[in-house]
Amino acid sequence: MSLLTVSGLSVRSGPSVLVDGVSFEVSPGDRVGLIGESGSGKSLTALAVTGLLPPGLTATGEVRLDGVDMIAAPERQRTAVRGPVAAIVFQEPLTALNPLMRAGRQIADPLRRIRGLRGEALKLAVRDALREVRLDDTDRIARSYPHQLSGGQRQRVAIAMAIACRPRLLIADEPTTALDVTVQAEILDLLDGLVTRHNTALVFITHDLPVAARVIRDTHVLRNGRVVESGPIDSLIDHPEHPYTRTLVDSARRFDAALERTARD
Amino acid sequence: MALLEADSVGFSYRGGTPALTDVSLTVRAGRNVALVGESGAGKSTLLRLLLGLARPTTGEIRFAGRPLTRGRLREYRRAVQAVFQDPYSSLDPRHRIGRIVAEPLRGLGLRADPARVAAALDAVGLPADTASRYPHEFSGGQRQRVAIARAIVCDPKVLLADEPVSALDLTTRVRIVDLLASLCAERDLTIMLVSHDLGVVAELCRHTAVLESGRLVEQGDTSQVLGSPSHPYTRKLLASVPRLAR
Ligand SMILES: Nc1ncnc2c1ncn2[C@@H]1O[C@H](COP(=O)(O)OP(=O)(O)OP(=O)(O)O)[C@@H](O)[C@H]1O
Ligand SMILES: Nc1ncnc2c1ncn2[C@@H]1O[C@H](COP(=O)(O)OP(=O)(O)OP(=O)(O)O)[C@@H](O)[C@H]1O
Ligand SMILES: [Mg+2]
Ligand SMILES: [Mg+2]
What we know:
The complex is a heterodimer of chains A (265) and B (246).
Chain A: E1 4-13, E2 16-26, E3 31-36, H1 42-49, E4 58-65, E5 68-69, H2 75-85, E6 86-89, H3 93-96, H4 103-115, H5 119-132, H6 138-143, H7 151-163, E7 169-173, H8 181-198, E8 201-206, H9 209-215, E9 218-223, E10 226-232, H10 233-238, H11 243-264
Parallel strand pairs in A: 3-8, 3-9, 6-7, 7-8
Antiparallel strand pairs in A: 1-2, 1-4, 4-5, 9-10
Helix pairs in contact in A: 4-5, 4-7
Chain B: E1 2-12, E2 18-28, E3 33-37, H1 43-50, E4 58-63, E5 66-67, H2 73-79, E6 80-83, H3 97-107, H4 114-123, H5 140-152, E7 158-162, H6 170-187, E8 190-194, H7 198-204, E9 207-212, E10 215-221, H8 222-227, H9 232-239
Parallel strand pairs in B: 3-8, 3-9, 6-7, 7-8
Antiparallel strand pairs in B: 1-2, 1-4, 4-5, 9-10
Helix pairs in contact in B: 3-5, 4-5
The structure holds adenosine-5'-triphosphate (2 copies) and magnesium ion (2 copies).
């Protein structure tokens, strides 16, 4: 059964259409990628799906998350399904983190609310969550405020917050952009493991084709708010149909080539 | 000529362990420098010191051969611009993009010429009506490009850029990399780039320095460092680069 059904989703800001008739489905264990250039509507799609669009933007069409209509249902119902079912890693970690709260408390919050953990068990779970995202200096990180962490450390705190409660659907919006490639590889393995071991459904938003190829299977390429091409990631890379997808593949190869040339010289 | 130098620089955040230890690095005019290293290695901290936003605990930062003292910060700020790692938090949400991008011009006592602002926005691939809108109306990659437009609007001599293209899709990234390369070639810009994208490093920077846990473990010609890395961390870094299968 599908966990998330999006059909004909559009997002508008006054007269301008920012997301235009996007449809896709996600079942448990799926790895779905939304890829596309800057401004193509990836983040707005993720926000609309979880009922978190900022004021001033309106969504039409249908979004069903575990049966709940995320566009029409009252806020109370949407919040009730969002927490336990779906978690989102926002694109900009600083906007997701509370600047006035220590990282440890921010991770503890959903663990307490959703998994009902208290006391020592809660402390241990926070520590595990930090270790899972390779923040091994757990005590210091837990005590730090967001501004006392590096960019990549913040991004990992945001990931830890999202996955600590083992959501059934994880929406991750460019979750590894602030990470160097070694840590990135570990986080991608972590996400991969979540899907394989816990049958978590993953919606992975990225502009990075090589990164996408490591974790996702079904891919939707967005451009100007529309899905221009869909299919398994491997065939999109081998036989891109849409000119935009072709440009994406070519640019990925260009940086690969620059690196290889330099390494050879 | 040495534009910017870190000489045996050490730095500790209040109450913390050292974030940087004995770091010496020189940025020469016309020779772009890449700074790479693991998350938490101290890259942003070093940029902050080079920008004069914090003072080293030990050692010295020099600009054009002389110590970067408080009295010289004004002169220094004329020559240097920065792109911060978290572009959104560096854009004032209450101001329109036009005003945000014009900031460095006003800082230099120049007229906030709308034509220069428009040219900078155009150079980073943002449409003309961008200037009249607010930061929250833009996507992550668009905001990152606003930050780049602001940094280049006044033709700086040095650009200290912290992951300036990380939020950009590949086609936009190509555009920005080409833009920066042309500014270096035509406007005497020198860049110090923090990036975990080694492909971008290879395209833009002649010199590469590798930071691990606050220490420089390797530096030299980019082709040397990436071609025959001598330090285990650099090797690991290269091995982890995600690439497309052939
Ligand atoms: N609050 C808003 N008001 C008006 N327009 C908006 C708003 N938020 C986003 N937009 C516009 O909607 C379009 C899609 O934005 P979105 O954030 O979904 O892009 P994206 O695909 O996530 O891009 P990126 O890769 O740069 O993050 C962009 O052109 C953006 O300028
Ligand atoms: N204000 C602060 N107070 C205390 N510690 C800090 C502060 N800012 C950064 N740190 C710590 O200093 C170390 C270096 O941080 P820095 O931001 O320089 O790393 P970075 O190399 O830029 O990492 P990233 O690639 O993740 O951005 C990190 O361990 C970080 O937690
Ligand atoms: Mg986005
Ligand atoms: Mg940093």
